[in-house]
Amino acid sequence: MRAFIFPGQGSQSVGMGKALAEASQVARHLFQEVDEALGQNLARLMAEGPIEELTLTENAQPAIMANALATFRVSGIEVAKANFVAGHSLGEYTALAAAGSFDVATAARLLKLRGQAMQQAVPVGQGAMAALLGASLEIAQAVADAAAQGEVCTVANDNDPSQVVLSGHKGAIERALVIAKEKGAKRAILLPVSAPFHSPLMEPAAHAMEQALADARIAAPAVPLYANVTAAPVKDPAEIRRLLVAQVTGMVRWRESVAAMWEAGVTDFVEFGGKVLGPMVKRIAPDANVRSVVTMEDIEALAKEI
Is residue 14 domain-shared with residue 101, that is, in the same domain? Predict the structure, then answer.
């Protein structure tokens, strides 16, 4: 069995999509669709930068989706060649677009709004996120509980057995950096993000997405999506809508999602448009076959095998 997986924020870089667009009309057309949907030249920003503008959440989210979806579309591989799709955070929108739930324009507009709403939910400087390396979910939860001290400090991403991300008020996250080492984490690193994603502080953004998703057309995906907040497969459009809203404030249960797919019989994981999720998958399911597809060479090699 096989799963197609799609990366989340942090996988953006200047030059993303440029080689794809130069080599493939399919990619050029998709990037043009995104540009028209957003009323901006996102493709040029992806190709040329500056990185500061590309990294802004409202640009990074649709850019990462566009690049990963273009990589998938250029491959020419039918989504039915997978048994499941999954994505990390914003990557769920890419996964749903790949599976036919969203058209490209809808996915782009929703992610632009999602980025704006997340950025506006908490004033810059009031929130933060930190990665705990060499820490289990149990250790991370204990750190979050000890660091909160009346503020928000919560587990945002359970990425793999050795990496958990905390999110919340800046003061609480700074306390967590110290407490993490006391509780046995190998390292605790402040992340270069502009807002405390996947925490209760994102409640205003969740409300904004609830309104936007209520008006969005969502079709049943061609194959089930393993959802971030439940680590379980879903195909019902109404449930997908509900889970995408819950995901804004909820924990990304990536470790559990991959483990559940492995238990369900998935042995092959193909990551489109990044090299972030593949290493996580190997740490969760060491015997899995994992492939990250980024370049035209990667795409051509994959197309010969599937």
Answer: yes
Question: What ranges in 196-253 are assigned the alpha helix state H?
Answer: 203-215, 237-249
Predicted TM-score (pTM) of the model is 0.96
Domain that holds residue 148: 127-193
For residues 66 and 115, membership in a common domain is answered with: yes
* Shared domain check, 227 and 159: no
E strands, the chain, where? 2-6, 84-87, 127-133, 153-160, 163-169, 187-190, 225-226, 233-234, 268-272, 289-293
Instruction: Examine the domain organization and report whether 110 and 148 are in the same domain.
Output: no
pLDDT in tens, the chain (306 residues): 999 999 998 778 999 999 999 999 999 999 999 999 999 999 999 999 999 899 888 999 999 999 999 999 999 999 999 999 999 999 999 999 999 999 999 999 999 999 999 999 998 889 999 999 999 999 999 999 999 999 999 999 999 999 999 999 999 999 999 999 999 999 999 998 878 999 999 999 999 999 999 999 999 999 999 999 999 999 999 999 999 999 999 999 999 999 999 999 999 999 999 999 999 999 999 999 999 999 999 999 998 888
Angstrom CA distances, 147 to 1, 111, 132, 178, stand at 41, 31, 13, 9
Q: Alpha carbon 218 to chain centroid distance?
A: 19
Give the CATH number for residue 35.
3.40.366.10
Asked if residue 207 and residue 169 are part of one domain, the reply reads: no
> Are 37 and 161 within one domain?
no
For residue 66, give the nearest of 88, 35, 89 by alpha carbon. 35
On whether both 44 and 159 belong to a single domain, the answer is no
Do 212 and 265 fall into the same domain?
A: yes
223 contacts 84 by C-beta, under 8 angstroms: yes
Tokens encoding 133: 């390396």
Q: Given CA atoms 40, 46, 49, 55 in this order, what sign does their dihedral have?
A: positive
| Residues recognised as catalytic | 89, 198
Is the Cβ–Cβ distance between 59 and 115 less than 8 Å?
A: yes
